[in-house]
User: Which sequence fits this backbone?
């Protein structure tokens, strides 16, 4: 379970050229995904979804409905796989755990003072421990962006190590909140820092800050994962989250993964998409692929 | 003695094992793209194309036609008339008449109107031209669609704007046209090169006889249809396809006042010799062997994209291709690993497929030349690295290739290959990089990759190359002059500098 902790040497992180990254991401957005590739891509994207609800007004009923949708996104069509996980606040973990029991759908919980992370470290650790104790299979933590931007990398690094330790058997996804880091250079350094500290996944955003996931940010993080793998042999997962609404965007993400990290990452074990509204668009596109017609959106349940 | 051999063997085995255990990326078919071919419906091909002289398609006096094919399938697309001396003479006379009677008498604004009209019509028919360019030349549709055609359109728009403002381009001079311009263009960017040549010539008040390359005449001939549709006065542009001999007749025609040639350095030298003493004006855009220099402080992943774009864009059939990679020793291993991974993702195949990255080699002759140069590289001792991509059974293809362990003296590091073949060399200091980059008879383009702004200015000012890109490669714009130093030619195309080749100043 223990992961080798790398020394925190950010000087070896190469700079990122913003124009170059955006050009490459835009070029890959032009890949033409048709017929069989589209159908397979939609099913793959569905199996990678972390269906998410992170609202103050979340209730038991809302979470149970989301879990139903997670297990059987398209009732009556068994070829549509269940999603990867349901992502909720700690208080709702046990409800989700119960609703999803035996389905293969994982329970992910945000923790560490989500979304701002502006709480003392002992609170972050306790937050994590309790979420795991209540049944979370995966923990989505946030980094201390204030400390990162102030150049206090050691603190961010140590916190991730401490939270990873508190996770025990649960998988740790580290949210960089790239919208607050602002530059691609920062995103690349933060990625390297999180992976070095033992993150199982790195994740773009909380969904509470704009911009959330953008193709450029995703590509920068995928390239950081590639370097980490080449250096250590460890495959770290990637999770774009926030603002992904259409099938086209989801398929574009798969293209970025396919052409940057290759086949090994095209699995829910190493790639997730944090979203909820995209699920119905994936279903609508899938039905359109088989019937040739777009259906009325009321044929698909929102919850 | 025998122990050393065993040691050596053991070491090689151990090295192999280390290599095999290194983390590898697999780019296979876990989720593959389905074929996404662009439709050919928009393209209206004739069985047979005449010469475009005096505003009409006419039968050649030579009575000769040649077949033009699709290099990706070897299927014949059409027959095209081949011009001989009499045809060239007719074309030059048509151009001269149009010049004297119509074109030179028009105001700049009126000339501009025609050129704007051509630009708009080409833009409207963008898809037809992109598909035709890909069918006749073998380049990926994503390039003809996103680069060749839009840039050709941009060149017409840009020069249309200059037509009535020439006195502002050359202050304190009075500006007049030259007359009939003979223009010879290559097969690597057939439509774009036609636009580069025709647009400034017309904007400055000249008339044109254009000879497209023998393997790729079709987009030029379809451009002639646009000239008809735009009501361009007959004879202002004449198009006479053919091979080298046709070009020679054009170069040597006494009434051609200016020659513009884009092509090989060898032919450029022949042209320069043959017109010496005639008083004809000449611009030459010839070969290149550009250095793409990667410094250790560069954004390495984006630099690797620049290497890929520099050498595999248009199958390396680019005179300004970044065919020599100079990478700083301290990052060479990293860059080469990244390069090998990236080459493995390149998709070679049907040029009409929208997901194809590398298309067909333009002709059998060019393919043979590339093969010959690559075997020379192997014989000279450089290490060959090639994409393992599948090669279609019909057509002309060459997999993306790079050589490591290349010496500056190797032929693959000296001569233009004009194919998807990169020669990789290393350097230790910036001074060494500059010296190696400039130590070549060519001087068309270069690329510099560093995150440090001051280094960009320092190095670019030392490069003997007409175009130097910093942290990018193969970027073109009609307002930016393009042309070479040394054996890469002289004269500039594009921008104000490009206009200078098509005007007389007094």
Assistant:
């Amino acid at each position: 379970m223990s992961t080798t902790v790398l020394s925190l040497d950010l000087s070896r992180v190469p700079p990122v050229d913003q124009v170059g990254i955006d050009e490459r991401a835009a070029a890959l957005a032009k890949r033409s995904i048709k017929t069989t590739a589209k159908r397979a891509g939609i099913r793959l994207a569905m199996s990678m979804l972390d269906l998410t609800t992170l609202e103050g007004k979340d209730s038991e009923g809302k979470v149970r409905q989301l879990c139903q949708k997670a297990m059987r996104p398209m009732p009556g069509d068994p070829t549509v796989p269940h999603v990867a996980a349901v992502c909720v606040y700690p208080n709702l973990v046990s409800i989700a755990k119960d609703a999803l029991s035996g389905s293969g759908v994982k329970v992910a919980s945000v923790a560490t003072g989500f979304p701002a992370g502006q709480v003392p470290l002992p609170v972050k650790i306790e937050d994590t421990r309790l979420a795991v104790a209540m049944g979370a299979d995966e923990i989505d933590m946030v980094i201390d962006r204030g400390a990162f931007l102030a150049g206090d990398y050691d603190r961010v690094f140590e916190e991730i190590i401490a939270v990873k330790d508190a996770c025990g058997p649960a998988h740790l996804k580290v949210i960089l909140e790239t919208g607050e880091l602002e530059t691609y250079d920062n995103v690349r350094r933060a990625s390297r820092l999180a992976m070095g500290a033992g993150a199982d996944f790195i994740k773009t955003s909380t969904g509470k800050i704009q911009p959330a996931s953008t193709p450029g940010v995703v590509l920068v993080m995928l390239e950081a994962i590639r370097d980490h793998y080449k250096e250590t042999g460890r495959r770290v997962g990637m999770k774009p989250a926030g603002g992904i609404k259409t099938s086209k965007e989801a398929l574009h993400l798969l293209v970025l993964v396919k052409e940057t990290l290759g086949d090994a990452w095209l699995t829910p074990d190493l790639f997730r998409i944090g979203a909820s509204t995209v699920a119905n668009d994936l279903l609508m596109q899938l039905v359109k692929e088989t019937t040739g017609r777009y259906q009325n959106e009321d044929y698909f349940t929102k919850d | 003695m025998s122990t050393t051999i065993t040691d050596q063997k053991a070491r090689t085995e151990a090295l192999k094992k280390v290599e095999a255990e290194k983390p590898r990326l697999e780019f296979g078919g876990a989720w593959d793209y389905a074929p996404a071919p662009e439709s050919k419906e928009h393209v209206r091909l004739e069985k047979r194309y005449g010469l475009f002289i005096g505003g009409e398609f006419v039968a050649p006096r030579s009575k000769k036609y040649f077949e033009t094919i699709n290099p990706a399938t070897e299927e014949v697309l059409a027959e095209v008339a081949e011009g001989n001396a009499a045809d060239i003479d007719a074309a030059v006379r048509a151009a001269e008449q149009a010049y004297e009677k119509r074109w030179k008498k028009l105001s700049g604004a009126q000339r501009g109107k025609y050129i704007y009209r051509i630009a708009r019509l080409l833009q409207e028919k963008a898809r037809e031209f992109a598909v035709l360019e890909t069918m006749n030349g073998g380049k990926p549709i994503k390039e003809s669609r996103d680069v060749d055609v839009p840039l050709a359109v941009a060149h017409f728009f840009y020069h249309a704007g200059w037509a009535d403002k020439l006195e502002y381009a050359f202050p304190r001079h009075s500006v007049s046209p030259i007359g009939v311009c003979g223009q010879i263009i290559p097969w690597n960017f057939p439509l774009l090169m036609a636009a580069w040549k025709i647009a400034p010539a017309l904007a400055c008040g000249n008339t044109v006889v254009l000879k497209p390359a023998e393997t790729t005449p079709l987009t030029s001939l379809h451009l002639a249809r646009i000239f008809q549709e735009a009501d361009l006065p007959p004879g202002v542009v004449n198009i006479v396809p053919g091979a080298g001999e046709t070009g020679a007749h054009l170069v040597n025609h006494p009434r051609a006042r200016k020659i513009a040639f884009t092509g090989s350095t060898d032919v450029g030298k022949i042209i320069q010799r043959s017109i010496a003493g005639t008083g004809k004006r000449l611009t030459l855009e010839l070969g290149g062997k550009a250095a793409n220099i990667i410094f250790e402080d560069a954004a390495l992943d984006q630099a690797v994209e620049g290497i890929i774009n520099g050498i595999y864009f248009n199958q390396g059939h680019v005179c300004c291709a970044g065919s020599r990679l100079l990478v700083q020793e301290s990052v060479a291993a990293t860059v080469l690993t990244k390069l090998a991974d990236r080459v493995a993702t390149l998709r070679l195949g049907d040029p009409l497929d929208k997901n194809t990255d590398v298309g067909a080699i333009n002709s059998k002759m060019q393919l043979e030349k590339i093969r010959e140069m690559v075997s020379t590289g192997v014989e000279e001792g450089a290490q060959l690295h090639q994409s393992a991509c599948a090669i279609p059974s019909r057509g002309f293809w060459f997999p993306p290739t790079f050589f490591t362990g290349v010496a500056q003296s190797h032929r693959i590091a000296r001569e233009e290959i004009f194919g998807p073949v990169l020669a990789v060399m290393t350097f230790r200091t910036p001074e060494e990089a500059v010296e190696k980059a400039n130590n070549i008879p060519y001087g068309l383009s270069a690329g510099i990759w560093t995150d440090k702004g001051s280094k960009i200015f320092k190095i670019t000012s030392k490069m003997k190359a007409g175009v130097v890109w910093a942290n990018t490669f193969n970027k073109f714009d009609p307002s930016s002059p393009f042309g070479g130093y040394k054996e890469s030619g002289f004269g500039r195309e594009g921008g104000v500098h490009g206009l200078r080749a098509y005007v007389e100043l007094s």
About this structure: Chain A touches chain B through 35 residues (CB under 8 Å). The first strand of chain A starts at residue 49 and ends at 52. Residues 77 and 197 of chain A are 42 Å apart (CA to CA). Chain A has a mean pLDDT of 95.
